[in-house]
Automatic annotation (TrEMBL):
Record-linked PANTHER family: [LYSW]-L-2-AMINOADIPATE_[LYSW]-L-GLUTAMATE PHOSPHATE REDUCTASE-RELATED, N-ACETYL-GAMMA-GLUTAMYL-PHOSPHATE REDUCTASE, CHLOROPLASTIC-RELATED-RELATED
Positions of region (Disordered): 184-204
Domain of life from the UniProt record: Archaea
Job of this protein: Involved in both the arginine and lysine biosynthetic pathways.
Protein keywords: Amino-acid biosynthesis, Arginine biosynthesis, Cytoplasm, Lysine biosynthesis, NADP, Oxidoreductase
SMART domains: Semialdhyde_dh
HAMAP family from the UniProt entry: ArgC_type1, LysY
Species whose genome carries this gene: Halorhabdus utahensis (strain DSM 12940 / JCM 11049 / AX-2)
Catalysed reactions, semicolon-separated: [amino-group carrier protein]-C-terminal-N-(1-carboxy-5-oxopentan-1-yl)-L-glutamine + phosphate + NADP(+) = [amino-group carrier protein]-C-terminal-N-(1-carboxy-5-phosphooxy-5-oxopentan-1-yl)-L-glutamine + NADPH + H(+); [amino-group carrier protein]-C-terminal-gamma-(L-glutamyl-5-semialdehyde)-L-glutamate + phosphate + NADP(+) = [amino-group carrier protein]-C-terminal-gamma-(5-phospho-L-glutamyl)-L-glutamate + NADPH + H(+)
Gene Ontology BP annotations: L-arginine biosynthetic process via ornithine; lysine biosynthetic process via aminoadipic acid
Protein name: Putative [LysW]-L-2-aminoadipate/[LysW]-L-glutamate phosphate reductase
Amino acid sequence: MNANEGEPSLTASVVGASGFTGGELLRLLAGHPDFEIAQATSRSKENKTIGHVHPNLRGLDLRFSSPEDLKSVDVLFAATPHGVSMDHIDAFQDAADTVVDLSADFRLDSEAQYDEWYDGHSRPELLADAEYALPELNRENLADADLIASGGCNATATILGLLPLFEHDVLSGDEQIVVDVKVGSSEGGAGGGEASSHPERSGVVRPYAPTGHRHEAEIEQFLGVDVSFTVHAVEMIRGASATIHAFPEEPVSKGDLWGAYRGSYEDEPFVRMVAGGGGVYRYPEPKAVAGSNYAEVGFELDPGNKRLVVFSAIDNMMKGSAGQAVHAANIALGLEETAGLEFAGMHPVGSP
Ligand SMILES: NC(=O)c1ccc[n+]([C@@H]2O[C@H](COP(=O)([O-])OP(=O)(O)OC[C@H]3O[C@@H](n4cnc5c(N)ncnc54)[C@H](OP(=O)(O)O)[C@@H]3O)[C@@H](O)[C@H]2O)c1
């Protein structure tokens, strides 16, 4: 099905639409050729206009409604905090044949993982039905999927950086891999709390999760390797920027690396390779992808070729959540993969 000509032919709802990723979903869906927004829910902003919360969307003729009264639609996006989707999944699936969840509720494979990394799971029997969405990793699983778990932001940046190295046998999985991700304050959501308040966040490079970040579970599940994972909170608003150090057992050359990355990504619509070219932005840069669904990926080698450094930058609210969710829905529903997602970003731009 590709309904790009004429009026939108599919309906979509956003549950949790007053939040940060909910707002980004509304922005994307409003510009999407195939979707009409049928409902945007918020408990705290019920009956307020969308523009009351998301000033960039003042032109949308729509008001927030209650998540207790869901309309029947083709696809429902859940942009709610961890725990909400698992508890409301029956209502979501009654309302829509395709549910795309932006939270972590359906990303992991087993109840044991939720016991280890989260606070357990209320509907573990559904975990086997859910498809993880990171199209560069597993788009073939997304066609016709009806319960989709959009990949986590920091996990997405990390997996995109590492994937070609495993797909093309540059790394075996036995090497030590150290991942350091710098993240913007919007990762904490609209109710980000004290740590994300402007005076506290301003100017910081704060080790936020030195060890034990929950996205480590996703990375290890989908790449099948252990990673040493640390996250810093920095002053950006948007962005997740991963720096990955790996120590290949056999020396690799730049040519090997270009071969691996081109082999994995040259046909990917949303991955831009940026590896040491000219100009100011010689490596992946969150500013360059702000507001867009693009990921930038690049690499460099130590002299002697013993240490490989990989860089990966995304907008956490786009490639790391709302954009990835729409990309997955496009695939699941048989639409043009890039529909509604072609905005390239802006330059110059301030701290995004
Ligand atoms: N921010 C990011 O960069 C990012 C990236 C990847 C994934 N995610 C995930 O995406 C989800 C949303 O994140 P966010 O940053 O957009 O959060 P957010 O800004 O805090 O928004 C959460 C939304 O959920 C609604 N909500 C809260 N509890 C609810 C409930 N029990 N029932 C129905 N609606 C409820 C809230 O509005 P009302 O209280 O008014 O209903 C609000 O609209 C989270 O699971 C997050 O982990 C976020």
